[in-house]
Give the backbone structure.
Amino acid sequence: MKNERWTAARIRALKGHERIVCLTAYDATTARLVDEGGTHLILVGDSLAQAVLGYDTTLPVTMEQMLHHTAAVARGARRALVVADMPFLSYQVSDEQALRNAGRFVQEAGAGAVKIEGGVFRAATIARLVSNGIPVLGHIGLTPQSVLTLGGYKVQGRSDPAAASLIEDARALAEAGAFAVVVECVPQALGAALTEACAAPTIGIGAGAQCDGQILVLNDLVGLTPPETTPRMAKRYAETGETIREAIAAYRSDVVSGAFPGPKNVY
Ligand code: KIV
């Protein structure tokens, strides 16, 4: 079992036994590093939009872009479950559309599961995908594809009715067959209540330490995001952006001075 690939079913079974470690990745090189770091689940997030493609929101990302990056991550990851994030308007139109597009992630890109955003109102779509053999990761709380109706990237579930409705969402997704549920940007007490209420594991991002697992955007974790745009819920474990800047400055100076290429770099 030790070197077998993580499946949705195995991750689902970790609830109550072991915390689930999740990260995003967008290409084969970083997927290999994330995988070798012992991550259970790699999400090819539609945060691709901001992390890699230079957009301000996730809304412009297309199916073709997500397929391209999911296939790269699937080639780089050996053990982690690779989850493809279904982009805006790839599953909202109808359950048929959702099934066709989710199927493309499995068949064409090598994903082991897909993620879709939404609560009670998305449960039927999730049930349809799961009953057709496609594992689904749910996503509630701050759902970035709804940024226009939410009025910005804000903490969700602060009022009692909003918190109660998120608890209904979490229960509905687990009942529909989601193998786990991402809970984004809610007060930590609500993160704990959702974890208690939901039969499937909760994967928190800005939802407190009581969730069954945690996920972060890799670029935030390694310090590739500018510090001023790194959200409070993320922790910077390294300053890779600074390391890259220093390496480029040293290379530039060596090229200008003639120190590169040196005797070891020539044939
Ligand atoms: O797109 C993404 O990276 C996500 C995670 C932040 C959960 O949805």
